[in-house]
Amino acid sequence: MALIFVGFMSFQHVATYVAAYLLFIVATITDYYDGKIARARGLVTSFGKLLDPVADKILIVGAFVMLMDVPGLHIPGWAIVVIIAREFFITGARSLAASDGKVIGANKWGKAKAVIQMIYVYTFLFLGIVTQVLDTHEALGAWIPGGVARYREVLAAASLWAIVCVAAYTVYSGIQFMRVNWQAMNLGKGV
After folding, report:
1. Which residues does 93 contact at the CB level (< 8 Å), separation at least 6?
2. How much is the pLDDT for 50?
């Protein structure tokens, strides 16, 4: 689904953004229920513990990269690089532990990070769609206090501050991951 999502996001049009938005919702909901069903039925495997976080990362990183091109949003590249770097770092750490026969699953900080990132995508992709609608239906802008120009200013500032917070929490969750799993990765004494 991640590749189809990226495909839809590649075109700056209301219809493709709406399709991408709906696909993102479906992908995140099915991911949640997939894990829930696997745990309830005792179908949790080491392969699933390793692959599921990678699939999640592909979807969320793809979403952040594609959101950088959405008109009206202000998402600095450094914030996305920070998010991607954390994801690569954790994936590498999990691979290192797996080479010693240890599987490191997600922890509460990583799960909270995923939720925060998804909320950002849900919120700002939706607001990006609103921007596209306002651009194509100028009469709707009359209903916005301060007009479309003010809406764009607020949206740009909100997306900037929100992505900075998302990036900061993403780094924090990576630090917590390393703190908790330091010994499992055979990196010496705990931090």
Report:
1. 104, 177, 178, 181, 185
2. 64
